[in-house]
Amino acid sequence: MESAAGAGAGLLHTKGRPMANAESSQPLLAVPRGREGSLDAWTTIVDDACPVDPALYVEYDVKRGLRDQTGKGVLAGLTQIGDVIGTATEGDQLVPAPGQLIYRGIQIEDLVDGFVAQGQPGFEETAYLLLFGDLPAKPDLQEFTEYLSGMRKMPRGFIHDGIIRMPSRDMMNAMMRGVLGLYTLDPQGSDISTRNLLRQSLHLIAKLPMLAVYSYQCYLEEFFDKSLVIHRPDPEYSTAENFLHMLRRDSCFTDLEARLLDVCLVLHAEHGGGNNSSFTTHVVSSTGTDTYSAMVAALGSLKGPRHGGANLKVVEMFDDMRSELTDWEDDEQIADYLHRVLNREAFDRRGLVYGMGHPVYSISDPRTVILRGYAEQLAAEKGYSEEFALHARVERIAPLIISAQRRIYKGVSANVDFYSGLVYRMLDIPAELYTPLFAISRIVGWSAHRLEELTSGSKLIRPAYKSVAPLRSYVPMEER
Question: Which domains are assigned to the chain?
Answer without folding.
Answer: 12-49 (no CATH), 109-303+445-455 (1.10.580.10), 310-426 (1.10.230.10)
